[in-house]
Backbone:
């Protein structure tokens, strides 16, 4: 554990909070309040050594907590967020995190830390390099999923956590949750949602196509762009590509059909085109292109077998109860990846989230997800 210095003030890069969902786990919970608002904090790590051998100095890690850590310090639940997510787990997973919910903040000490490379408070391409006095920009070093989990472990140590009852996450968060399993001395159970044990060639290809859209924007300038003139067109197209992979053909057919818009903008004649343009615009209002490039590459490093004797051997070494959730309509991380993962984990079991929303079902259908994971939590986590 490093000698880390906590900053007891809100993160200067506090994330934009999104509206919380209205669903609850069952009818008996009607009228429950949302989890009490949690102020985002920042832990500054004096040094963070990365898998690459590089060292980040004075590296901030943003996080939020809900609930109270017991005197035995063993009731922590780690919630891991996805690619463009943030630490406000009580907002984007309101059906899971809160009083009386499956991740009950009156029972558990819930922690959500911001991934390395994100623009929402942790060290990233936007951070100032203490050695040069300038933002890292495209020179930000490669960070892996393992590096992010290692940094988050230091947050837990700072908070006094001795045991993690559960590590859970979806998509990129699911990759982190699985990686937490290799911290066997700390983590008792894991839940991996809409992710596999390594980033497949299919998923790598989606990410590379998005990066090339950013690189093709003349404003990219090798990542050395003016913050006031970023590669907005490239990032918008990258997000449009991503949104196609996050949803499903069935949802688009039902939601949009071949409906057209009355007043086309940017030659978007069909409603589905208008939707994609809107999503691209929204991401530009809240995200950074260098961060997006870095984070998609960080996902590409996900491979639990690397340096651990191979894929099957690594998974076979995990002793914890492990819930793996797949979504049949997910085209980005097809359910056969979750089926394989569950079959290779000694304590693994596969459950299916039936959602028409594709990969994004773990967010959009979070009420159904809460119902799905509740039996696992009751059996292995309480």
Residues:
């Amino acid at each position: 554990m490093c000698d880390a210095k906590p900053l007891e003030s809100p993160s200067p890069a506090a994330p934009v909070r999104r509206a919380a969902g209205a669903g609850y786990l069952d009818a008996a919970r009607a009228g429950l309040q949302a989890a009490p608002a949690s102020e985002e904090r920042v832990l500054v790590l004096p040094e963070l050594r990365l898998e690459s051998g590089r060292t980040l100095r004075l590296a901030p890690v943003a996080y939020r907590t809900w609930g109270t850590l017991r005197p035995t310090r063993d009731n922590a639940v780690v919630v891991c967020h996805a690619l463009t997510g943030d630490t406000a787990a009580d907002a984007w997973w309101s059906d899971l995190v809160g009083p009386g919910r499956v991740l009950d903040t009156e029972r558990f000490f819930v922690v959500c830390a911001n991934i390395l490379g994100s623009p929402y408070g942790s060290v990233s391409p936007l951070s100032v390099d203490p050695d040069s006095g300038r933002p890292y920009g495209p020179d930000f070093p490669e960070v892996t999923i393992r590096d992010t989990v290692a940094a988050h472990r230091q947050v837990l140590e700072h908070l006094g956590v001795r045991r993690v009852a559960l590590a859970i996450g979806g998509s990129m968060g699911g990759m982190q949750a699985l990686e937490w399993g290799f911290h066997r001395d700390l983590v008792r159970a894991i839940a991996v949602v809409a992710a596999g044990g390594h980033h497949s060639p299919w998923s790598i290809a989606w990410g590379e196509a998005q990066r090339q859209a950013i690189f093709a924007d003349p404003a990219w300038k090798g990542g050395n762009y003016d913050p006031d003139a970023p590669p907005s067109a490239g990032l918008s197209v990258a997000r449009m590509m991503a949104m196609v992979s996050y949803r499903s053909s069935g949802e688009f057919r039902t939601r949009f059909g071949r409906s057209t818009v009355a007043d086309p903008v940017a030659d978007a004649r069909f409603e589905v085109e208008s939707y994609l343009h809107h999503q691209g615009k929204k991401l530009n209002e809240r995200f950074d292109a260098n961060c997006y490039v870095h984070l998609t590459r960080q996902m590409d490093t996900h491979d639990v077998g690397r340096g651990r004797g191979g894929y099957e051997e690594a998974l076979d070494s995990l002793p914890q109860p492990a819930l793996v959730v797949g979504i049949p309509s997910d085209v980005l991380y097809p359910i056969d990846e979750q089926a394989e993962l569950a079959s290779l984990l000694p304590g693994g079991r596969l459950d299916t989230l039936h959602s028409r929303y594709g990969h994004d079902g773990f967010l959009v259908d979070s009420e159904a997800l809460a119902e799905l994971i509740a039996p696992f939590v009751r059996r292995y986590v309480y």
In short: The chain has twelve helices and 13 strands. Residues 203-297 form a domain with the Rna Polymerase Sigma Factor; Chain: A fold (CATH 1.10.1740.110).
